[in-house]
Amino acid sequence: xxxxxxxxxxxxxxxHRYVPKNSMNAVTIADYTAVWEKVSxxxxxxxxxxxxxxxxxxxYSHEDLYRNIYWTCWRxxxxxxxxxxxxxxxxxxxxxNGQLQSSQNLDEFVMKFAAILSNHLRAIDVLGSVFxxxxxxxxxxxxxxxxxxxxxxxxxxxxxKESEMQLMYIFKKVIENTPxxxxxxxxxxxxxxxxxxxxxxxxxxxxxxSVISGIRLPPNFEDLRMKYMQLDTEYRLMRGYNDEPSDPxxxxxxxxxxxxxxxxxxxxxxxxxxxxx
Length: 277
Description:
The protein is mainly α. It is built from ten helices and no strands. Helix content is 65%, strand content 0%. The model is unreliable at 1-24, 242-261 and 271-277 (pLDDT under 50).
């Protein structure tokens, strides 16, 4: 079941009709709980590639999940369902970010970030299909939004913003042609970030333009370029701090580039976590 997802916002329409909460058909708490247990597990599964090793997504009937979600919405619990969905997406991404930020070296960070990002793009498609009815009715008509945008924003706020300084460091090394491990994987990250959101250009406009063939710059490119310059200033200020990390957990054991470069990456990632987004 393929459902096309769009980024454009549309004004609420009146073609959909919802069953009032006090309707005779309203879903009971027990019914909702039973449905949500199945749905929430699948959402977590879709967001976590590590769980898919033992629980492949194809083992679960997407059609059955869609049907359960459809009837839950039709019987008046679409608001609760959307709220619970956003919460489980947030909680799962927070957990994934904890794993990412515990990386002990540059190679580990690159591989973890690439895996989380790539899987999140797949999850957007999978969950967009399963939640198609909720997306095209309640999310669109009541919130004037769409599930893809919700999932992209969740990734940006929870994962990307926490990794800005690390990515700044990594992308600079690539654009400077500094020998660095997993260079091709880093280019995959650039492509996936742009695929997820063109606003990701702010992390290094020059690198995005050099990696992505035939790239079409978004209308807000100048704003993104200015944002990059501001972030670059912050990055350079962080490099001015003491090279020794203030957080022992940020210690880098592997030396994939020079010792000074690893310390710069180390200090940048740790300082970013201290000052927050």
